[in-house]
Amino acid sequence: MAREELEVLVTMNQHLGERARAARVRLELTQAQVALRIGLATEVYGRIERGHMTPSLPALMRMCRVLELEANALLGFDLAAPPPWLKPVAERTRVRPAFDSFLQVVERLTRRQVRALADLAQCMLPSVETRPERTPRPVDASEDPPV
């Protein structure tokens, strides 16, 4: 998953969790009560509410029923502006294609090659002050499998 997609997912999860918690508090229910009614373990529902987990679509639908919310409200689409976790399409289309291509190449490198590439990139930084000090590590032949 690309970093930008992960950031959107984390922000969406946090937003959904905040909305779910507010609805639960409004209904004067405990996490355990909501979890039981949704059919989830209390710990799982707690992770959803804290924004650490994305509910499945069936679980999301059950959450809406139990919390007396529409899915649009739970996800933030009831706002006049787009929900805070949803970036405008124009912003997403400006993704750096060259960087994405570079990452695809890096994913096929061995650990040793990735380290060499990182060292090369460090050397390309403008000055010594901006580069963190690194001590050379002995090369281990067992580190050749792809990352």
UniProtKB/TrEMBL annotation:
It holds the Pfam family HTH_3. The keyword Metal-binding does not apply. GO terms for molecular function: DNA binding; DNA-binding transcription factor activity. Residues 128-147 are annotated as: Disordered. The keyword DNA-binding applies. PANTHER family: HTH-TYPE TRANSCRIPTIONAL REGULATOR (PTHR46797), METHYLPHOSPHONATE SYNTHASE (PTHR46797:SF1). InterPro entries: Cro/C1-type_HTH, Lambda_DNA-bd_dom_sf, TransReg_Diox_bact_type. This is HTH cro/C1-type domain-containing protein. Residues 21-74 form the HTH cro/C1-type domain. GO terms for cellular component: cytosol. Keywords: DNA-binding.
